[in-house]
Amino acid sequence: MSHDYRLARERMVKTQLIPRGIKDQRVLDAMLKVPRHLFVEEALRGEAYNDHPLPIGHKQTISQPYIVALMTQALELKGPEHTLEIGTGSGYQTAILAELCEKVYTVERIRPLLEQARKKLWELGYTNILFKAFDGTLGWEEYAPFDAIIVTAGAPRVPQPLLDQLADGGRLVIPVGGKFSQDLIKITKKNGDIVQKNLGGCRFVDLIGVHGWKD
Ligand code: SAH
User: Is the CB of 108 under 6 A from ligand 1?
Assistant: First the structure.
């Protein structure tokens, strides 16, 4: 019942996001609005608003709500931005981004996941998202530079093409580290210089590609 899911979202925002420091009201509103339960398989819908990641098939996961909110808040989206997302997965993070900026370019290497996300996001009425089945460690040259870039898989190092495709003044958020744990890194480009901030520990599935882990 959609009424129960609305309550579940309110509870998620109140107990998981606000107490841990998510304070960007636009991010909180997007998390209240997007029906996360529709991005997991039916049998898992009752768990969709719980404080942990969930499997989405192909050995991938939909990130924990708090991590989605934390990464999104770090992108500092105000509305007019063009955002590149690497790792479409379920499409949930994509929907959150589509609520908060002008255009989302999302790249996923597993085609069936991309097609499933495309269908879902279309059904939900999003028209400001472009999709590509590709190795996202190479970015999306054609539409660069991007005001914001988010990588939702763990990388051994920051892929150079993503740094190159980040606009001046832009923000890049990416988990970087080993296979079993990473640090969430926020990079800001200022007059060509790179400023790095560590947002804390996290655990993501592998970013696989030319500038990521080997398959
Ligand atoms: N944001 C997604 C998280 C999905 S998990 C969600 O909330 O559902 C990470 C995704 O990154 C997986 O679907 C995986 O296939 C994808 N991925 C890994 N390496 C990639 C690459 N080089 N390019 C594009 N997608 C990649």
Answer: yes
> Residue 211 and residue 164: Cα distance in Å, rounded?
13
Q: Would strands 129-133 and 103-108 be described as parallel, antiparallel, or unpaired?
A: parallel
Residue with tokens 């800001």, as numbered in its chain: 188
The C-alpha atoms of residue 174 and residue 83 are separated, in whole angstroms, by 14
- Separation between Cα atoms, residue 105 and residue 139, nearest integer Å: 10
pLDDT of residue 1: 60
Q: Show the low-confidence residues of the chain (pLDDT under 50).
A: none
Helices 25-33 and 65-74, interaxial angle, to 10°? Answer: 140
> Can you give the residue ranges of every domain in the chain?
2-202
pLDDT at 3: 72
Query: Does 181 participate in catalysis according to the annotation?
Result: no
Please identify which residue in the block is written with the tokens 């499933």. 116
For ligand 1, is residue 63 a contact (CB within 6 Å)?
yes
120-175 pLDDT, tens digit each = 999 999 999 999 999 999 999 999 999 999 999 999 999 999 999 999 999 999 99
Specify the pairing of strand 60-62 against strand 54-57. Answer: antiparallel
Q: Which CATH number fits domain 2-202: 3.40.630.30, 3.40.50.150, 3.30.70.270, 3.40.50.300?
A: 3.40.50.150
Pocket test for ligand 1, best of 37, 71, 88 (most atoms within 8 A of CB): 88
